[in-house]
Each structure stands twice: as structure tokens, then as C-alpha cells.
Amino acid sequence: MRIIGTILLCVVFAACSSNSTKRQPVTDEMLVNINRTLVDMDQERIESYAERHNWDMKVSPTGMWYQIYEHGNGDSVRVGKVVTLNYKLSLLNGKECYSSDSLGSKVFRVGQGGVETGLEEAVLLMRVGDKARLIMPAFMAHGLIGDGNKIPARATIVYETEIISQSDN
Fold this sequence. Notes:
By secondary structure, this protein is α+β, with helices and mostly antiparallel strands. It is 31% helix and 25% strand. The protein is built from four helices and seven strands, in the order ααββββαβαββ. Strands 1, 2, 3, 4, 5, 6 and 7 form a seven-stranded antiparallel β-sheet that branches. Strand 1 and strand 2 (65-70) form a beta hairpin. The longest helix has 25 residues, at 28-52. The protein is globular. The protein starts with a helix and ends with a strand.
């Protein structure tokens, strides 16, 4: 009886595990194409957003959109310096997520991370006193998962920034 039960169990297991439709394995090429499509879609949304606001923006080689709309008289921002900036961070739908008005100025050492990749890149294009608009696709901002608080997954973010100061410490 045990042998018959074991054989029956093996037959049922084999029948359940044989799949009549074979699944294609996900290849690196497929993932690259999906990612390329998502990046292209983000770029189209950003371009449309900038056009609706009549912003004359430039696009960096990495895909960050920026416009320095007021030039300051200070020194250019340099790697290793501590930068203080006022900011407003919002989503493309206009929802404000964070700002220096509510959280205080953002202070960080340039080149050591701890902030969005796009913000690191942008401040290096600026000097003390500059005001700029930045639009960062998700891969330069908070990525696939967001920040776990106010910024959702795969969100493109918009920064309004002003470099207040830079110092050695």
C-alpha cells in the first residue's frame, strides 16, 4: 500500500510540475530594453513639464535637467566643500514634499554622497548665490523605491535651489 501511495504521489507531482507553456527566461538584454523604455518615458514627461512651465532648460549628459535662472557673485562650488542651500522639492504633479522653509537649509559635503545624485551634479554647475531649477529622473533621485516617506517609487522630482554658502567645514 505504501508503494502504491508513493508511486501515486510521484505521478501527481510529475503531472503538476510539467508545464505545457514554457516561460522565457528574463535576459540581461530584456532588462536593459525595459530600463531604456522607462528612461525614455521619464525624459518625455520631463520635457513636457518644462515646456508647460516655459522653462528654458539644459540637459546634462547624465539626463538631469537644469536651469540657472539667477546668477550669484560667489565662488563656484567645488568638491570637498560644505554647501548650504535653500530648496523646495516637489513632484511633477506639483505636490511639495520637502523644503528648507519647514526643515531648514540642506547642508552637505560635495562629493561624499548623502544627497540625490542629481543634486550633487547640479551644485557643481553652480556658484554661491545662484538660483536654479532642477528636474531629476528617478534614477538620479530616489530610484525604484522612493524615500519611504513622501517621495513615491520611481518619482521624478523638481528642485528649486539657491546656494547660500560654501565652506571648508
